[in-house]
Amino acid sequence: MKDLNEGYPANDELDEESSDEQSELFEHFHFDVDKGQTLLRIDKFLVNKIQNASRNRVQNAADAGTILVNGKAVKSSYKVKPGDSISIVMAYPPRDVEILPENIPLNIVYEDNDVVVINKEPGMVVHPGHGNFSGTLVNALMYHLKDVPLFSSGEVRPGLVHRIDKNTSGIMVIGKSEIATNRLAKQFFDRTTSRKYVAMVWGNMDEPNGTITGHIGRSIRDRKKMQVFPDGDQGKHAITHWKVIEPLGYVNLVECKLETGRTHQIRAHFEHIGHPLFNDDRYGGNLIVKGTTFTKYKQFVHNCFTICPRHALHAKSLGFTHPTTGKEMFFDSEIPADMQQLIEKWRIYVGSREIEE
Fold first, then answer.
1. Which of 28, 164, 233, 331 would bridge 4 by S-S if both were Cys, CB 3.0 to 4.6 A apart?
2. What angle, 0 to 180 degrees and rounded to 10, lies between the N-to-C axes of helices 178-190 and 55-63?
């Protein structure tokens, strides 16, 4: 058995502020069936192979078309044969922790019977854990969707197939049924979704665009950070494409397109190439990384930190295939007010420098 588990930590202690470290919330297993295997229904086979997988959960995956045998989707009644190559993608099961619904306002961009798309505010924890069992996105969803069966159990992690960090803002999609959630999970696993972020990073990029490639894993020196391992002997494969939207002197506004969804991927990748995100206290962006030694400049930067008191990162757009209709869906969002003010302040600063020069 090979467990190709994507993006789920053994524990959630990476960040004491939040358990929002992972972008993807699904698990993937692959099995090559032994030559001596007798004919057996695939739902029974997988329940025997996967720890804590109920037959109902496996059958839901089959109904969603996320169980493949030799590359083709099969029903739960399929009889496993010797030599079969089986893969299954499922959203993570709820944790055995009760989460109470809370009437917390949500910025809902789109909603139908199968999915809800939200524009998450900065500062909101997505997933409950480690002292954050209230005030989270899941608590808010439990209230908003309290009449939807998937959200009425009071268990953790309903509908989530990806997440973004506490202090990152932006677009997320949530499934409203087991089948919708599993189908969305498979899209994230297959990397058929389209995700673009906008970030402000320290320093002037040498090229107008580029790609950062490097395995990402937990830092050897600081267990609350992620680290890039260029040789690929540790961590998980990660690719971030970027292009400069606007050069702003000692900082650049960049667009990032993700091929993978690793823990703190954008934040770790840009630190790795010497351009940490502006005001990212975890990855060194809360220091004056570039610029002059003048007191006036230092005060300007600290004022910028006050305007945007978080790492300057926004999940601007998300594209996916609707899990029921098959229609291509795309959602875009405005850059939030704190980042807009930050960008404008740097524009004014750059303009004043040009006048002086």
1. 28
2. 70
